[in-house]
Amino acid sequence: HRQVHEVQSYMGHLETSDKESVHLVENEIQARIDNIFSNLERLEILSSKEPPNKRQNAKLRVDQLKYDVQHLQTALRNFQQRRYLREQQERQREELLARTFTANDSATTIPMDETLQYNESLHGAHRGMDELIGSGTNILQGLRDQRVTLKGTHKKILDVANMLGLSNTVMRLIEKRAFQDKFLMLGGMAVTCVLMFLVVHYLT
Question: Main role (predicted)?
Answer without folding.
Answer: Involved in transport of proteins from the cis/medial-Golgi to the trans-Golgi network.
